[in-house]
Amino acid sequence: MLVFNCTKAAAEFFTVTRQGKKQSPLKPSPKSAIGDTQHNSQPVSPWLVHATKVQRKNVLIAMHVPTRYAMVFTGLKKGDWTEFFNQCLERLFNNMQFFGEAFELCDEASFHTMFNQFLRLHPKLHFCQRGDRSVQSHLNDVVWHFEYRVHEAGCLPDGQEQCASFDEWVNSMIRSTKSHKDYFHPDEEMFLDWISQYGDLDESEEPLIRQYFHSLRVQTSPSLSEYEKTAESDALMNAALNEYYENLNSIPDNVIDLNQARARKNKK
After folding, report:
1. Is position 112 within any domain?
2. What is the pTM assigned to this prediction?
3. Which residues share a beta bridge with 64?
4. Contact 130, 34 (CB under 8 A)
5. Average pLDDT over the chain, rounded to an integer
6. Residues in CB range of 214: below 8 A, 6 or more apart
7. ∠ CA 266-232-216 to the nearest 5 degrees?
8. What are the DUF6933 domain coordinates in residue numbering (predicted)?
9. Which pLDDT value is given to residue 19?
10. Residue 70 carries which DSSP code?
11. Given 140, 165, 191, which residue is the final one in a domain?
12. Torsion angle in degrees (nearest 10) through CA of 34, 37, 40, 41
């Protein structure tokens, strides 16, 4: 089940009155807690959705409760919850596919399989009005950063691609919750959650994926030269791969060779 827990502002955004009749997708809250990922032995993907005004335009923010992964949406019409749902799934799939292909952990065919697995595990959609103070505090931080970026740019993001660019930036920030022992990055946690639930991830591969993300952050660091980025990235990944393979007889076909991957990209 896919659950969109709505703040009061989001509930009002999704509710409209047409020809004297109130129309809304909201239903009573599930008996499960807002952060539960299981309900009646079925998987749940819980989100908190908030609506706000930026430059007098409607902006929606959806945050995945367990991972604090956030996505922003602009240009939606009041009451159009169907379009919100469609854009939310499209953005989520595209963002996760970006990481899957960047790390060469999946291709279009395998990602299509994960897409079908997601739909199979979450056949039902549920909107309700319910909040959570901890998630809301992180969501408010996303709103603050979004308003600041809009102020700097002078305009709101135009379309899904520009919104996704903000998603990529804001989800690379570190966050903390009581349920996490250490600080974490929402993009990293969300991708691990995604590929473990809907893909074919072995637990032993998790440290390797975390190194992929660490390497990616090194490559995008503004404080390092290109040579330093390449050297540190190679060192990180070589150490991770050596540790991962030390007890294996052979290298699995679905794990990348970074040198080969870089060579292929340089030829493009």
Report:
1. yes
2. 0.83
3. 47
4. yes
5. 84
6. 236
7. 65
8. 5-189
9. 87
10. E
11. 191
12. -170
Token pair of 110 as six digits:
């395998």
In a domain, 63, yes or no: yes
The encoded tokens of residue 176 equal: 């903390």
Q: Indicate the burial class of 20 (C-beta count within 10 angstroms; 0-12, 13-18, 19 or more).
A: exposed
Tokens of 61: 């923010």
What is the Cα Rg of the chain in Å?
A: 20
**Which pLDDT belongs to residue 176?**
93
Q: Which H/E stretch holds residue 4?
A: strand 2-6
Half-sphere exposure of 39 (CA within 13 A, CB side): 19
Determine contact, residues 178/109, Cβ cutoff 8 Å.
no
The pair of structure tokens assigned to 3 is: 């659950």
Which of these, 131, 148, 176, lies nearest to 55 by C-alpha position?
148
Regarding predicted confidence, which is higher, 200 or 2?
A: 2
Could you tell me if residue 199 is inside a domain?
no
Q: Tokens 């079925």 map to which residue?
A: 42
**Whether pLDDT at 263 is above 50:** no
- Give CA angle at 267 (264, 268), nearest 5°: 95
| Distance of alpha carbon 76 from alpha carbon 266, whole angstroms | 40
pLDDT single digits (tens) 206-262: 888 898 898 888 776 555 455 444 554 455 455 544 554 454 444 444 433 333 433
